[in-house]
Amino acid sequence: MAFSSTFVLCDQAGTFMDTHTHSSLTTLILSALFCGIVLVCMLFNYRDNRTRYALLLAFTGSTCLLYSVALGGGLALYYSGVALIFCGVWLNGSLLFFIGKLRNFFIKKSGNRIVQFPMIKSRN
Fold first, then answer.
1. pLDDT mean over 41-66
2. Which backbone phi and psi does 102 adopt, to 5 degrees?
3. Domain range summary for the chain, segments of one domain joined by +
4. Model-level pTM?
5. In the predicted model, is pLDDT for residue 76 greater than 70?
6. pLDDT at residue 111, as a whole number
7. Where are the transmembrane segments (predicted)?
8. Quick check: 72 and 2 in contact, CB under 8 A?
9. Coil vs helix vs strand at 122
10. Pairwise CA distance, residues 22 & 32, whole Å
11. What's residue 2's pLDDT?
12. Taking the mean position of all CA atoms in its chain, how far away is CA 28?
C-alpha cells in the first residue's frame, strides 16, 4: 500500500525537509488490472453513444487513479478517479433507466398529471 514519510533534519544552517511517497508495485499492478477489466467489460457491454461517453469518463478516472497510485497524487485525486469510474460504469449500465424511474416516481407523487377535459358543448 501507499504511505508517505517526512524527514526533518535540523542543523545550524537551518532546517532540511525531505518528503517521499512510497507505493508498492503490487498496488500499482492491481489498480491497473482492475481499471483494464472495467474498461474491457464496458466495451463488451457496448451500447450507442453513451458507451463512448462512459468509456471517456472511466478512462479519465483510470488515469487519475493510476497517477495517484504511481506518483503519489494524493487521496483527493484517487477518490476522484474512483468516482469517475463509477459514474462511467453507471452511465453505460443503467443511469438513464434510473433517472427515468426517479422522474416517473416524483411526477406520480406530486400529482402533476396531464388532465384531459371533455369537450363542453355550448348552448345556443
1. 92
2. -65, -45
3. 32-109
4. 0.64
5. yes
6. 57
7. 25-46, 53-70, 76-99
8. yes
9. coil
10. 17
11. 46
12. 19
